[in-house]
Specification:
The protein is built from one helix and 18 strands. It is mainly beta. The protein has two domains: about 110 residues, Immunoglobulins (Immunoglobulin-like); about 60 residues, Immunoglobulins (Immunoglobulin-like). The radius of gyration is 26 Å and the shape is elongated.
Length: about 210
């Protein structure tokens, strides 16, 4: 009796393990490295993903933001709004990376990855995709009777803990993680900030 009970338990465990393996082999999925990116106008961004599928051979892969009909997807490489600014590279482990250069605020969108296999019905798109927000640098000025504080701001929180650099008449006066710079006397100097080499307009030319 003891032997039969032990044998029964062993068979049950094997059965459950087998089900788990079958389920994992039949998964269609796209996994993105990150699902939200905020970056600056004029900069470069990379979005990465990996994908799985049950069987067959992948015949086509592409990124898209636009879909006009059930099967009418616009491959980003063929989108005239991205002409010359997009590269898509793959690796041997079902990974893909989309690179967009010279970003524009109009590039703000949700980017999805789609792949097609040679199997009947073997098509899949990864939803939700990567939400990209492209913002410009703006400078806010706060003045009191003894000081002026300049704050380099954006419409979304920049990804990656950027370093802000402040310039006074084209010379660096502060390079740190803080987006703010304070000076204490009236001046006719010009000030501007930069993140990753991208500058804001001159913001203060005081009398």
């Amino acid at each position: 009796m003891v032997l039969r009970t032990a044998g029964g338990h062993f068979s049950l465990l094997v059965f459950l393990w087998s089900v788990a393996v079958v389920q994992s082999q039949n998964v269609w999925s796209v996994t993105y490295t990150t699902q939200s990116i905020c970056t600056l106008k004029g900069s470069t961004v990379e979005m990465s993903c990996s994908y799985t599928y049950p069987s067959g051979t992948v015949t086509s892969t592409f990124w898209f933001t636009k879909k006009f009909d059930v099967e009418n997807y616009v491959n980003l490489i063929n989108d005239r709004n991205y002409k010359g600014r997009v590269k898509d590279r793959s690796d041997k482990t079902n990974g893909h990376t989309l690179r967009i250069t010279d970003l524009r605020e109009s590039d703000s969108a949700e980017y999805k990855f789609r792949f097609i296999t040679d199997q009947t019905g073997g098509k899949y798109s990864g939803y939700p995709g990567v939400t990209l927000s492209v913002t410009d640098l703006q400078v806010k000025v706060t003045t009191t009777w003894w000081s002026t504080t300049l704050t380099c701001s954006t419409t979304c929180t920049l990804t990656g803990n950027p370093t802000y650099t402040w310039y006074r008449n084209s010379k660096i006066v502060q390079g740190a993680s803080s987006p703010s710079y304070t000076f204490y006397f009236k001046t006719e100097d010009s000030f501007y900030c930069a993140v990753k080499g991208i500058s804001s307009p001159a913001v203060c030319e005081c009398d």
